[in-house]
Amino acid sequence: MKDSKTFWNKSAPRYAKSAIKDEAAYQKKLTVTRGYLQPESLVLEFGCGTGSTALLHAPYVKHITATDISDKMLEIAEQKAKEANINNVSFHVGSLDTLDFSKEQFDVILGLNILHLLEDVEGDISRVYDLLKPGGVFVSSTALIDDMNPAWGLLIPLMQFFGFAPYVSKLSKQQLVSQLTLTGFKIDYEWQPAKESVFLIAKKEA
């Protein structure tokens, strides 16, 4: 956690300026997600980075609690919210297991481009399930490291050694779906825009 926080704090300025890799796919994910949002929805986004997605969804919900382990990322996020005059998003430094949330607190939880960066995916998915209200949904977009070019398997450890990459879990699509269903979720929507990534919406039974 400490090494990952250091990495993301150092990366924050560059990350904030980076362009979205696939704008069309990103827009589709926003649209699909909004089909699950309601004006009274209470939303949690963990691993929110510089807050761009949370701020785009803010007009469609009652409140978004956005979290990240990087305080430097959240400094940028808070400035974006201020400039956009968005007042229904609150930013908090921390992770799913360090922040004090109540059981069944949220209607929707977003984990976008974050699950493959977590050291305890099983535990964090279980935590998401507990934090969702009955009938709530978990929206995730995940890099499938195990399905990428095998060369990345050799390159990533080298990049990590020199501080150019954070912790990365070698998740496959099958492993992720299996973990979600074993936890109690039902897959409500699945889209794979590329071999190396999957967008899922998992529902907690009402």
UniProtKB/TrEMBL annotation:
Under InterPro entries, the record lists: Methyltransf_25 (IPR041698), SAM-dependent_MTases_sf (IPR029063)
Q: Which GO terms describe its molecular function?
A: methyltransferase activity
**GO BP terms, alphabetized:** methylation
Q: Name one Pfam family in it.
A: Methyltransf_25
Q: Sorted alphabetically, which keywords does the UniProt record give?
A: Methyltransferase, Transferase
Q: Where is the Methyltransferase domain?
A: 43-136
Q: Which PANTHER family does this chain map to?
A: TRANS-ACONITATE 2-METHYLTRANSFERASE-RELATED (PTHR43861)
> What's the protein here called?
Class I SAM-dependent methyltransferase
